Amino acid sequence: MNNLLKLKNFYLLITAFSISILIGAIYIEYIVGAKPCVLCKYQRIPYLVSIFICFFGYNNLKSNIWLYLLAFNFLISFIISGYHFGIENNFFPEFGGCSNSNTSIFNKEQLLEALKEIPPNCKDVNFRIMGFSLATINVILSFLVIVISLIISKNEKNKK
Fold first, then answer.
1. At residue 125, does pLDDT exceed 70?
2. Residue 141 pLDDT > 50, yes or no?
């Protein structure tokens, strides 16, 4: 019973963590005014998915599949944020979705309007926390959740 309580607490912790990350991203975008790039928006998706995985895992503690899905979900987050980190530090070239060029504009009114809607380049860091870009922080956090999820799943498997 004690193991199930720890597992429930883990799912609750990851849910609270994911909600906090999403609220923080929304706060940074709409209150602080730091416009996210395309990859910044993609990095939010695994946090939303993790809330659903944790809900199902919390309600089905007998199966370790939810821990593996959580680890896999954060592996996807790790890959996206690692790629973003690489673009920010010029390890990788930007993919087509990061560039902000529009060649179908013919007059200055269209150009001025289009400039308001263009997301920033993925290599431009427009918000930092303690000197780290949000992509860097996401790489670290995603890696930690992967490791912790796998450790817990290994411990749960050994106790069965």
1. yes
2. yes
What's the domain count of the chain?
A: 1
**Helix/strand number for the chain, H first, E second:** 6, 2
Phi, psi angles (nearest 5°) of residue 133: -70, 160
Provide the pLDDT confidence category of residue 1 given band limits of 50, 70 and 90: very low
Which two tokens mark 20?
């906090």
Domain residues for 56? 2-93+122-159
Alpha helix segments (H runs only) across 28-133: 38-42, 45-59, 65-88, 108-117
The pLDDT tens digits of the residues spanning 14-28 come to 999 999 999 999 999
141 Cβ neighbours under 8 A, 6+ residues apart: 21
Domain with residue 47: its CATH number is 1.20.1550.10
CB atoms within 10 A of CB 22: 15
